[in-house]
Design goal:
The protein has 137 residues and is of the alpha/beta class. The protein has one domain (10-129): Transcription elongation factor, GreA/GreB, C-terminal domain (Chitinase A, domain 3, Roll), CATH 3.10.50.30. 24% of the residues lie in helices and 28% in strands. The chain has three helices and seven strands, in the order E-H-H-E-E-E-E-H-E-E. It has helices at residues 13-26, 31-43, 96-101; strands at residues 10-12, 45-47, 61-67, 73-79, 90-92, 109-113, 119-129. Strand 3 and strand 4 form a beta hairpin. The relative contact order is 0.22.
Length: 137
């Protein structure tokens, strides 16, 4: 799966350190996922806290995306791992879909690999702030 172009990633400075710590902590348990997150963070444009555009997915964002293979639309709220509850639509940033979505803008189209190793093309349809989330530790 060699995709030559990835959509730009924008990360708020106040979440960057915690995301890096999460990735480092996950290295022993899930090195592929941790490496994917670190790769995305390394290529990210880091903006000061509070200056991230509203159409960029961050912690606490409600993100609606479409699977271009199945045409299924889904909405999740990106959360820190301790706040995740997939049954309630709260996806951890430390999951394959969380890593894929964090920092992307509305309208971005990207390749995503499912937990079973299947490659899918996803399109970000909308991003909105979902409300309060727990503070960064």
């Amino acid at each position: 799966m060699a995709r030559t172009s990835r959509p730009p990633v924008v990360i708020a400075s106040d979440t960057l350190d915690r995301l890096e710590r999460l990735a480092q902590g996950a290295m022993a348990r899930n090195p592929e996922l941790a490496d994917r997150l670190l790769t995305e963070l390394a290529r990210a444009r880091v903006l000061p806290a509070g200056q991230t555009p509203a159409d960029v997915a961050g912690i606490g964002s409600a993100v609606t995306f479409r699977d271009e293979t199945t045409e299924r639309e889904q909405t999740v709220v990106l959360t820190w791992p301790e706040d995740a509850d997939i049954a309630a639509g709260r996806a951890s940033v430390l999951t394959p879909i969380g890593v894929a979505l964090i920092g992307l803008r509305e309208g971005a189209r990207f390749t995503w690999e499912t937990r079973s190793g299947e490659t899918r093309e996803l399109t970000m349809l909308s991003v909105s702030r979902a409300g309060p989330v727990s503070p960064a530790a």
